[in-house]
Amino acid sequence: MGKSVTGGYVYRGCEHPNLNGMYIFGDFMSGRLMSLKEDKNSGQWKYNEICMGMGQTCTFPGLINNYYPYIISFAEDESGELYFMSTGTPSATSPSGVIYKVVDPSRRAPPRHCHYDTLPVRVKSNVIQFVPQETLFGVELLAKNKPEPEPTKTYDWLLELLDHLSDRGRALTTPIPIRTTTRPPRSSKRKGRRRKGKTRTGNISELQNGAVRLIKDEFMQGDRGRVEIYIHGEWGTVCDDLWSMKNAEVVCRQLGFQYALKAARNSEFGEGRELRILLDDVHCNGTESNLLNCTHAGVGNHNCAHYEDAGVICGNTRPIAEASKSATGRKEPSGLQRDKS
């Protein structure tokens, strides 16, 4: 069966019940692992080779299915578990080698069933933590086929609360200008049916100066986002470190919302670096039709950067603070009333 048998031990451990009573040994030259087990009825010893698993049974963490072939010696610990030592060269004087523990993954003892107290061993050096260096061979791990989990996303609880309170009709936004190609005029037999005062100039109406939109993560948003304004044929950002709720009220009302829930500063909804900064130092009293009617430093004039891009959160539900004031009967100042003077 071999050239140089290396004697082993009878397994008397607890962790692997299927190995109980097996005499496990090997061959130094061929690297073959073998076992003998006595048949108690006939008194005969049955021989079996110990094969390394090649299926998914061996894909438990820390298990391998290959070893250096030149088996030098076997050993057991105080709990009866078996080990063997082998090298990569056919010599007992090899300067390096590996210690392996024999494991049967097909059947293991129940959790917390095996308990033993290790014997204290005196050592002169510091204990070195064991780190396995070998890997599985010939087995395609399931973990490689599993997609990596997405990173956990964090949410602002205030934004979640405001989102819950806002109305579903928050999809009202100013349309984005769309590039259109010129088409040859079509002849129509209904020329006499045109309404007076209207000309046929195209399917998309011209955007007016002062139109606004809300952008978040480079996408159009319904009720919140970075404020971008359309002036003289281009979109730009509003950069203001003193961005106020009055300014936010003008933007939200222009987009069709009843209330401004938050005036966001310091590029809370991202920086619009691909656009020019068109407005700065905007001061509104809350009644203007758009931001151009408020006082500002002038179109294109600014002394700020994109990290101060302004944003808003709008809604059709009264903010919590205002609702509580109304419930107590106190008169609240409204930014939507004109000064009587």
TrEMBL record:
PROSITE patterns: SRCR_2 (PS50287). Residues 173-185 have a biased composition (Low complexity). Pfam families: SRCR. Gene3D superfamilies: SRCR-like domain (3.10.250.10), TolB, C-terminal domain (2.120.10.30). Keywords: Disulfide bond. Disulfide bonds join 284-294. It comes from the Eukaryota. Residues 186-199 have a biased composition (Basic residues). Residues 173-202 are annotated as: Disordered. Residues 212-315 form the SRCR domain. This is SRCR domain-containing protein. It comes from Ataeniobius toweri.
